[in-house]
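Annotated sample (chain length 244).
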Amino acid sequence: MRIAIIGEYTANFPPHAATIAAIAHSATLLKVHVEPRWLSTADIDERVVNSFDGIWLAPGSPYKDMAKMLWLIQQARESMMPCFGTCGGFQHMVIEFARNVLGLQDAHHAEYDPYASKLIISRLACSLVGKQMAISLAAGSRVAAFYGAATSTEEYYCNFAVNPKYIHLLADSGFRIVGSDTEGEAHVMEIPSHPFFVGSLFVPQARSTKDTPHPLVSAFIQSVHQSAIAEQSDARERRSRADL
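Output written by the structure step:
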């Protein structure tokens, strides 16, 4: 199975190296073969949707092409393609949802335009780069089930987060907040009806090791695996029908 890691790869950016390693950790645990491939946002086109079984929206914004990134997220959300966003990737999932589901076409990110009229993603008062924080997971959520726990301590690499002003508007429309800090800020969100549409403000890949793969990464890989199997089955059925 093939996973597209979307972002502007930088060799000396710790979360990027950790992303490849975390995929390997979870693939070994699940005994599956995964072929990850980095793609710049500038190279996004329909082939990404047609050639990959899942997409990981990597940290490291601003991206070269925000419009293409948002287009790809929309395709993954609407086509039920497994989609995992961490840090900046998660933030763009929120913007895409705000624009295309909530109808807030001017929803924006403070990193691109700090003076935009609707900053769905705003700058944090205090940077979380290099910090660890405890989060609470919502009972009954899929994410909590992935963890098998009600709490977790995670590592961060971000300066921006979901603007509290819009949190309830997002959650009430289907992008559910399933992980939060002590102040109730959104740190993990999911669409429960989607095979895997999960975003985290933290970088789970930073805490993944060979001996203890991160549960969110493993859940994503498992979802991609199931999606690939289903697609292969559908392809065989289509060929069988064509032969009749």
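Annotation: The mean pLDDT is 94.
Annotation: The chain has seven helices and twelve strands.
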